[in-house]
Design goal:
The protein is an all-alpha fold. The protein is 67% helix and 0% strand. The protein has helices at residues 3-15, 18-23, 32-53, 59-75, 83-99, 111-118, 120-132, 146-159, 172-180, 182-202, 213-232, 241-247. α8 packs antiparallel against α10, α8 packs parallel to α11 (213-232) and α9 packs across α10. The N and C termini lie far apart (38 Å).
Length: 251
């Protein structure tokens, strides 16, 4: 694993607050468990790489990527009979990615549905952390991470706007800008973020030392709304020819 990709994975972990969850209750923050999670995320990235760089996907290579992911799950204590259960959301998102080749664009789906499945890798990592430290469920249920995951996954799309113009990527924000234009895209995304903000305030989750959950989500909502506006202003300077070809539309 090259250093640049390893650093990217560590940045993802930090951004999604995974090290704090690992360390909750005095658990060891690093060590072999942490390294095994990094390896799992690496192999998920390798699967993504195949989907994002090849219009005509070689399914034998995809199968090999899945064998690596399942092996990682085994190392992390998941029984072979549960591999599909743990991988189910990633399978679903893979179908979304492949569907682009058939003209099934992310914009046909609701923001909530699409980003729920796009956060599949982080949900899997968090589930493995919860499996290791069941005390976390007494602080916040896994289901209560939904809003945080939706916001941070939107943030990833918005931040990656420029980078994703060169890949076959299901970047919902970029596709919306091309299909619907800047004004409508800002209205849709920031309207949804406002809705998530209201839902976050209604959650009956009390912050505890090391897990300041509502504050984490509130911060990400505010930062992402600003990014939606600033990144939208940058779209005119981007080369969108790759997306225009496979979307069959113009800006």
């Amino acid at each position: 694993m090259d250093k640049e990709l390893r650093n990217k994975i560590i940045e993802l972990f930090e951004y999604r607050e995974l090290p704090k969850l690992i360390a909750y209750g005095g658990q060891k923050r690093d060590g072999q468990f942490y390294e095994d999670l990094i390896q799992l995320q690496y192999d998920i990235y390798m699967l993504d790489h195949e989907l994002e760089t090849n219009w005509y996907v070689d399914m034998s290579i995809i199968d090999a990527r899945w064998k690596a992911i399942h092996k990682d799950l085994g190392v992390l204590g998941v029984s072979a009979s549960d591999y599909d259960k743990y991988s189910n959301h990633i399978y679903k998102y893979q179908r979304h990615e492949l569907g682009i080749r058939d003209g099934k664009l992310p914009t046909r789906l609701s923001l909530e549905y699409f980003y729920f499945y796009k956060s599949c890798d982080v949900k899997l990592l968090r589930k493995l952390i919860y499996d290791r430290n069941p005390e976390l469920a007494k602080v916040i249920k896994t289901s209560e991470w939904r809003i945080f995951d939706l916001v941070t996954e939107i943030n990833d799309d918005v931040v990656d706007l420029q980078e994703d113009t060169t890949t076959i990527n299901g970047n919902r924000f970029l596709i919306s800008l091309i299909q619907l234009g800047k004004e409508k895209t800002v209205q849709i995304f920031n309207g949804f973020l406002d809705e998530l903000d209201a839902r976050n305030r209604q959650l009956a989750v009390k912050s505890k030392e090391g897990v300041e959950f509502l504050d984490w989500t509130d911060t990400q909502i505010k930062e992402t709304k600003k990014l939606v506006v600033s990144q939208t202003a940058c779209v005119d300077g981007l080369d969108l020819s790759l997306y225009e070809r496979f979307l069959g539309v113009g800006v």
